[in-house]
Amino acid sequence: YKNNDRHELSELPSAQQIYMKLKKALKDGMEAGKLQSTPHLAILDRRYYDSALLPHIIASLSQWVKNYVTGVTLEEIIQYIRDGVGELKPTGGDSDSKMLNLAHEWARTFLPHCLSKVHRVGFGILRSEELEKALEEE
Questions:
Q1: What is the DSSP string of 47-108?
Q2: Residue 122's pLDDT band (cuts 50, 70, 90)
């Protein structure tokens, strides 16, 4: 299914600007000790995520969501992803409402939670014998 009103994120005029701002916020966060880059990107300060990264993530995510949700403006989508409240009346029915709810939860809860896990212990996938061995080595 191809709708003429839908665009790939890379085709949107502000996608490159959003990417560059997000890249700068990531670099600034690492330099300030709010983020860590090894062994993978990790959030060390949730307030930094909320203030410096989240606006850019919402901007990018909202443009993607706009391709799949009908009957609401981009501004309404941004507000809903940011705040999780609003009197939105998407014309696509239940699936549009679910998409908006998922986008809100992904940006506000799931992504920062996953990026806050620094190592396998935090993820809960380090076996007890691996933990004991690691503690012995320290």
A1: HHIIIIIHHHHHHHHHHHHHTT--SS-HHHHHHHHHHS------TTTHHHHHHHHHHHHIII
A2: low
